[in-house]
C-alpha cells in the first residue's frame, strides 16, 4: 500500500479545513491505520543472523567472565560509578 498521497489545497481554503479534509481522507482510505501498524514493525531475523548474534553474546559473556576472574573487572559494575 502506498502511504504517500498527493492532495492539493483548494483555492481560498484555510489550512485548518485542508488539514481536516486530508485527515478524513487518510482515515477513510485506511492509510493512517496502515502507517501506525508498520511504524514499529521489525522483520524476523534470519536463522543465520540469530546465530551470529548468539555467538557475539557468548563471546562477550566469556570475555567479561575472564576479566572478572583475572581481577581486571570489578564484581559489581554499579560500584564503579561514584556520584
Q: Mind explaining what this structure looks like?
A:
This protein is an all-alpha fold and 83 residues long. Among the domains are: 13-41; 47-74. The protein has helices spanning 15-29, 31-38, 47-70, 77-80. It comes from Candidatus Magasanikbacteria bacterium GW2011_GWC2_37_14. This is 30S ribosomal protein S21.
Provide a short characterization of the protein structure.
The chain has 4 helices and no strands.
What is the succession of H and E elements? Answer: HHHH
What's the end-to-end separation, in Å?
A: 52 Å
Largest β sheet strand count, sense and barrel closure:
none
Q: Which structural class is indicated by helix and strand composition?
A: mainly alpha
Unreliable segments of 5+ consecutive residues: none
- Percent strand equals under 5%
Work out the oligomeric state of the chains in this entry: single chain
Radius of gyration: 26 Å
Continuous helix count:
4
The number of strands is 0
Report the principal-axis shape. elongated
The overall pLDDT average reads 86
Helicity range: 55-70%
Amino acid at each position: 500500500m502506498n502511504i504517500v498521497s498527493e492532495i492539493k489545497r483548494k483555492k481560498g481554503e484555510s489550512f485548518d479545513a485542508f488539514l481536516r479534509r486530508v485527515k478524513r481522507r487518510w482515515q477513510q482510505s485506511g492509510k493512517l491505520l496502515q502507517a501506525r501498524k508498520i511504524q514499529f514493525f521489525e522483520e524476523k531475523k534470519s536463522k543465520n543472523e540469530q546465530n551470529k548474534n548468539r555467538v557475539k553474546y557468548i563471546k562477550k559473556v566469556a570475555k567479561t567472565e575472564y576479566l572478572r576472574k583475572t581481577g581486571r573487572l570489578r564484581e559489581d559494575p554499579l560500584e564503579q560509578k561514584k556520584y
